[in-house]
Design brief:
Elements (H helix, E strand, L loop, with lengths): L7 E4 L2 E4 L6 H13 L4 H19 L5 E6 L3 H15 L4 E5 L8 H10 L3 E3 L9 E6 L11 H13 L3 E4 L21 E5 L4 H4 L3 H5 L1 E5 L5 H7 L3 E3 L23 E5 L7 H12 L4 E6 L1 H7 L7 E4 L3 H9 L5 E4 L6 H13 L3 E4 L1 H5 L5 H7 L7 E3 L3 H7 L1 H4 L6 H12 L2 E4 L5 E3 L5 E3 L12 H14 L4 H19 L5 H15 L3
Parallel strand pairs: 1-9, 3-4, 3-6, 4-5, 6-7, 7-8, 8-9, 10-19, 11-12, 11-14, 12-13, 14-15, 15-16, 16-17
Antiparallel strand pairs: 1-2, 17-18, 18-19
The protein binds ligand NPW, adenosine-5'-diphosphate (ADP) and potassium ion.
Protein name: Bifunctional NAD(P)H-hydrate repair enzyme
EC number: 4.2.1.136, 5.1.99.6
Cofactor: Mg(2+); K(+)
Length: 511
């Protein structure tokens, strides 16, 4: 079974786990569709505000005062409902508004009018120990940087260390991209509605949300599911069914062959990490393909992993004559950019599958078209695993589009290249040319250690070699990589990470 989720939807005690991620625009469309279907918009706001009040009482029972900060839109509307509910429960609730009250309209105005609590301008708020801030200033409608005086106020509250419960999103965090717009609250807890937004999962947004609670406010779940589009939170439910199952009729070649290219004589460690990771991920045979000058360095370090001498393009052509050699890793520690390019292109033209990492990515700086043409196919045969620096190097125009977040950038790169792109980091995004995308959030900080990227490239190849489709293989490998790091614990070396792959796989596979 999939592992338990950190995110839960609560409906009258019922707990619903969901991987749905909706950008604010998609959420607004769902909202509008629900209202068009006959559900009054104000009812949604009532349930949202009541859920916030319930969470405030449950999570911060020790509060002296609940300080509800309300913005000019529907996020503020949720705040007025929450304040009313808290006061009705006998709690001390005080209201502060950030804009002129005459700007309120629609459901937010109704919520304000039904609240019957005095509302004061935000600058009159005097912080006191024991205050709990309910942040209902901006949510999905944040459209620009915060005004400087509001940013200052938020920073002062943060500096005072008062606990913050955010409504939908911490104000200042862009729900679509996770970017901070001038300043942002750092919440202990965030209550959101129906589905996660990219800003809850992408950095820095994720670090500002605290724990995220997803509340069902009565929009039919089928509407949420129908709108989910192609963006998901990465978790085993997405790819578990694609993972290979042990089959008594298998032989080692049927369980997949992975070839990893080595670097030069003094740079063979990276390829050995990739090769070992491919083997640990279940590939039946793994081979290192090395330039002649590196063979002597590799011989003492390889046992179950085979070694082939592939010195030049002619050797590679012979190697590709063997139809069992289907899946390749090129880049970790490779060095020679010209040869990296010619090898990668030859693999592409030979209709094979390639995981291109590290130096293999950098080698195609300014030459993305050649790579795309060599791997052009109906289904992607190329997986690219750039970290931020490599992504900027290969896709400078996409990287410079400041209005776009990591999901859009990864999708654009995948579309441009016709490849699966795994844009690494603490919030790795995996995207396919058809727009499918997943955000990963299980990687512990200690995964950022030398060689862990080499391990990931090998894991992806190891799964692809076992016929897991490349997008599913990439999502699975990224998730298992994070799980393995958690099992290995901190501090961790890339070798420790390798050791933990088996247990990580066992923890999510059924057999
Ligand atoms: N989805 C659901 O199911 C439900 C969602 N609900 C709730 O609705 C929320 C979304 O409401 P929303 O669309 O009214 O947007 P919201 O975040 O209140 O902000 C818009 C206001 O802020 C202003 N503004 C923006 N940026 C600004 C800036 N930097 N500096 C200054 N002003 C700025 C903007 O002004 P404008 O850009 O128009 O000038 C406008 O006045 C959502 O987060 C959730 O809490 C529930 O009630 C019901 C069910
Ligand atoms: N702060 C972080 N928290 C969690 N995981 C991280 C963090 N930074 C990087 N990672 C992950 O660690 C791995 C590092 O890969 P890479 O940068 O290629 O390192 P190397 O080249 O040393 O192998 C990637 O899988 C990346 O997603
Ligand atoms: K908010």
């Amino acid at each position: 079974m999939p592992k338990t989720q950190e995110f839960v939807v609560q409906t009258a005690g019922e707990i619903w786990t969901t991987d749905v991620v909706l950008a604010p625009k998609a959420m607004a469309e769902v909202d509008a569709a629900a209202i068009a279907s006959g559900i009054p918009g104000y009812d949604l706001m009532e349930r949202a505000g009541q859920a916030v009040a319930a969470t405030a009482l449950r999570s911060f029972p020790e509060a002296n005062r609940y300080i509800v900060l309300c913005g000019p839109g529907n996020n503020g509307g949720d705040g007025y409902v929450a304040a009313r509910e808290l006061a009705a429960c006998g709690a001390s609730a005080e209201l502060y508004h950030v804009e002129e009250l005459d700007r309120l309209s629609g459901d937010a105005r109704t919520a304000f009018e039904r609240c019957h609590l005095p509302a004061n301008p935000l600058p009159t708020y005097q912080m006191q120990p024991g205050d709990v801030i309910i942040d209902a200033i901006f949510g999905a409608g944040l459209s620009r940087d915060l005004p400087p005086e509001l940013a200052e106020r938020i920073n002062a509250i943060t500096a005072a260390g008062l606990p913050v419960l955010a409504v939908d999103l911490p104000s200042g965090i862009d729900g679509a991209t996770g970017e901070m717009r001038g300043a942002a609250f750092t919440a202990s807890k965030t209550v959101t509605f129906m589905a996660q937004k990219p800003g809850h999962l992408l950095l820095p947004g994720r670090d500002h949300c605290g724990s995220v609670e997803i509340v069902d406010i009565g929009i039919p779940r089928r509407m949420v599911e129908a709108a989910r589009g192609a963006l998901k939170r990465n978790h085993p439910g997405l790819w578990q069914a694609d993972l290979p199952r042990a089959n008594l009729a298998d032989h080692k070649y049927r369980r997949g062959h992975v070839s990893v290219f080595s670097g030069p004589f003094n740079g063979t460690g990276a390829c050995r990490l990739s090769a070992a990771a491919a083997a640990r991920s279940g590939a039946g045979i793994v081979a290192v393909a090395a330039r002649r000058s590196a063979v002597a360095a590799l011989v003492p370090h390889l046992t179950s992993i085979m070694l082939h001498s592939v010195d030049n393009e002619l050797d590679l052509a012979h190697y590709l004559d063997d139809p069992r050699h289907q899946t390749f890793v090129l880049g970790p520690g490779f060095g020679d950019f010209a040869q990296a390019r010619s090898f990668a292109l030859a693999i592409g033209h030979a209709q094979r599958t390639l995981v291109l990492d590290a130096d293999g990515i950098t080698a195609f700086k300014g030459k993305v078209d050649e790579l795309r043409d060599a791997f052009a196919d109906v289904t992607p045969r190329l997986v690219l695993t750039p970290h931020e620096g490599e992504f900027h190097r290969l896709f400078p125009e996409i990287a410079a589009e400041n209005a776009k977040g990591k999901v859009e950038k990864t999708r654009d790169a995948a579309g441009l290249l016709g490849a699966i792109v795994v844009y690494k980091g603490a919030d790795t995004v995996i995207a396919a040319p058809d727009g499918s995308a997943a955000i990963n959030d299980n990687a512990p900080p200690w995964l950022a250690t030398a060689g862990s990227g080499d391990v990931l490239a090998g894991m992806i190849a190891g799964l692809i070699a076992q016929r897991v489709p490349p997008f599913a293989a990439s999502c699975a490998a990224v998730y298992l990589h994070g799980e393995a790091a958690k099992l290995a614990g901190s501090p961790m070396t890339a070798e420790d990470l390798l050791e933990a792959i088996t247990a990580a796989m066992a923890s999510i596979t059924q057999d």
